Amino acid sequence: MFAAIEAGGTKIISAIADEEFNIIDKIKIPTTSPSESFGLIRDFLMAYKDKLKAIGVGSFGPIDIDEKSRTYGQILNTPKKGWSNFNIYNQLNKDFDIKITITSDVNASAYGEYAFGLSEDKKSLVYFTVGTGIGAAYIQDGLLIGGRSHPEMGHMIINKHQDDGFKGSCPYHGPCLEGLGSGPAISQRLNKLGEDLDKDDKFWDIEANYLGQAALNTSYMFNPDCIIFGGGVMAKEGLIEKIRENFERLNKSYMDFAPLDEFIIKPKYDGQSAILGCLKLAKESIGE
Amino acid sequence: MFAAIEAGGTKIISAIADEEFNIIDKIKIPTTSPSESFGLIRDFLMAYKDKLKAIGVGSFGPIDIDEKSRTYGQILNTPKKGWSNFNIYNQLNKDFDIKITITSDVNASAYGEYAFGLSEDKKSLVYFTVGTGIGAAYIQDGLLIGGRSHPEMGHMIINKHQDDGFKGSCPYHGPCLEGLGSGPAISQRLNKLGEDLDKDDKFWDIEANYLGQAALNTSYMFNPDCIIFGGGVMAKEGLIEKIRENFERLNKSYMDFAPLDEFIIKPKYDGQSAILGCLKLAKESIGE
Predict the structure, then answer these.
(1) φ, ψ of residue B233 in degrees (nearest 5)
(2) Segment B134-187, tens digit of pLDDT
(3) Rg of the Cα trace of chain A?
């Protein structure tokens, strides 16, 4: 059996699966302190200790995902109280003397979609999650891209829409992609949650323009087989279609792409892709 | 021996080298028609036909670099008269029944710098060439990144500088990176060549802002060990330092980086990196 841990800023999910990725057991807990949260995860996993062959972890970041680093698995500077410098690898390794693979939550989701959600002819993807923040990952031929560590694509530079007076919510960059298009950026700008905003509200044209720019930039950077947009904000009806329209308008026929409804798409396993990705990473980590 | 061909929009260089990458012979010809230009290249290479083990090609593009494609080595739609649909692989394969590897000119340069120019601790790089156009490539652990084909990073979206009234020279996107920061963009804007512009002209702050944005976006996308800026425009004294300043200001301490004079750097083999990259690709293509 294999274990997966998806550690998010508000909740942590852990799952146990068999060799065919059937989920045997699952737990979902709130993210409180590291010791409390990972104490509960430990208790959950201990029941399967003798059967576990490997653990895959996808965590919020920034986190050290370089296996050769002395601080592998360590959460770096995070505004999340108590979590800076907490080392997930060391914590798990105390109780589980098996292979433990650590990556970012976005990388894990991207890997899940890559491994289970793509049609056979596709060998590369960009995966965006648009929610509390905006994260993205790129996978090519099974390899998660990131030189020194996982990417931070959510903070890419984009052009502000002419009808958008919002100054941007990113504490670092103001109007970067995340500062303009994340869930908090929407609610700060409009004083209501995106989910409460009518699907025909003209704001969605602005949001789709920002995500269309993100799609364009990542297309030009990686030339992927497809771009997947997941996360809470993407639940809005009609948004993916609007992103496609904006992408097409911005590209101005410069690059040829697959039909847009096959190129800019929603995740196949939204909400489960990170756990699936962690399980796949765990299984592959021991060469299976 | 190995052969390299660097096919640019204005000139084509070919070189013969031994197993240790010592250049034995070299030719440089103007890029005229495909038949004329590659006729001269053929004549040059024929003198070494019996000794050649493999050929590496870095060509202007867009070009099909997918080895599994039926049109591998074919130049796609290009404004360069007579070159659209010319297939470099087929052309060379008529006379040389050895392994022929085709990539883009920017990929080849990046590969040359990666293979010969990096310090041992660096395993990934972004390579920009800023000249007639702006091209870029990313290499991680020896792998040239690009899903469907080579990237087109020169056309990424950036923010226009508040003091820049130029509408952009890119026929597709207007003010994309290439439309704002390439050599032609400079000369169209200022009615003089960049090389004739004083190094203290305030325009260089604008140029450095654009290239700083490009460095920032690619840092967030790829998280590379270093970013290299080469090409004709980069010959301007002081420009690399100004790019570092802009990068630092735009990053706002969001990501940690190596000391900037080791992170944003100039090529070690400027002007030769593409030929070196082609030779390295040729040698590796036959497993040597």
Answers:
(1) -60, -30
(2) 999 999 999 999 999 999 999 999 999 999 999 999 999 999 999 999 999 999
(3) 19
Q: Verify whether the Cβ–Cβ distance B220 to A159 is below 8 Å.
A: no
**pLDDT at residue B197, rounded to an integer:** 97
Tokens 């502000």 label which residue? A160
Closest C-alpha to B130, from B243, B233, B269: B233
Rounded to 10 degrees, what is the CA torsion of B122, B126, B131, B133? 160
From chain B, pick out residues whose CB is under 8 angstroms from the CB of A158.
157
| A74-113 confidence digits (pLDDT tens) | 999 888 899 999 999 999 999 999 999 999 999 999 999 9
Partner-chain residue, chosen from B147, B155, B224, that has the shortest CB–CB distance to A224: B147
Separation of alpha carbons B186 and B207, rounded Å? 9
Flag whether residue A138 sits within 8 Å of chain B, measured between CB atoms. yes
From A59, A43, A190, select the one nearest A135 (Cα to Cα): A59
* Interchain pair A153, B224: CB under 8 A: no
From the list A155, A221, A250, the residue facing B151 with the nearest CB is A221
Alpha-carbon gap, residue A278 to A2, rounded angstroms: 9
- The yes/no answer to whether this complex scores an ipTM above 0.90 is yes
Chain B: give the shortest CA distance to residue A117, in Å. 17
- Report yes or no: A119 and A279 within 8 Å, Cβ to Cβ: no
Question: What percent of chain B shows pLDDT beyond 90?
Answer: 93
CB-based contact (8 Å) between B156 and chain A? yes
The pTM is what? 0.95
Work out the mean pLDDT of chain A and round it to a whole number. 96
Name the residue facing B151 among A153, A172, A222 (closest C-beta): A222
Interchain CB contact of B222 with A (< 8 Å): yes
B224 touches chain A (CB under 8 A): yes
CB pairs under 8 A between A and B: 116
Cβ-based contacts of B154 with chain A (< 8 Å): 220
What are the residues facing A143 on neighbouring strands?
A140
CA gap A215, A109 in Å, rounded: 17
Q: Give which of A183, A193, A188 is closest to A165, Cα–Cα.
A: A188
Chain A contact present for B249, CB below 8 A: no
Q: Cα separations (Å) of A158 from A132, A146, A154, A217, B50?
A: 19, 21, 10, 9, 53
E strands, A84-195, are 99-104, 124-130, 134-140, 143-144
- The C-alpha atoms of residue B275 and residue B12 are separated, in whole angstroms, by 11
Helix segments in chain A, DSSP class H: 34-46, 88-93, 105-116, 177-181, 183-190, 203-222, 239-251, 260-263, 273-285
- Determine the residue among B156, B255, B264 to mutate to test chain A binding: the one whose Cβ has the most chain A Cβ atoms within 10 Å: B156
> Mean per-residue pLDDT for B218-226?
97
Identify the bridge partners of residue B170 per DSSP, sorted by sequence position: B174
User: Is residue B288 over pLDDT 90?
Assistant: no
A156-167 average pLDDT score: 98
* B68 close to A (CB below 8 A): no
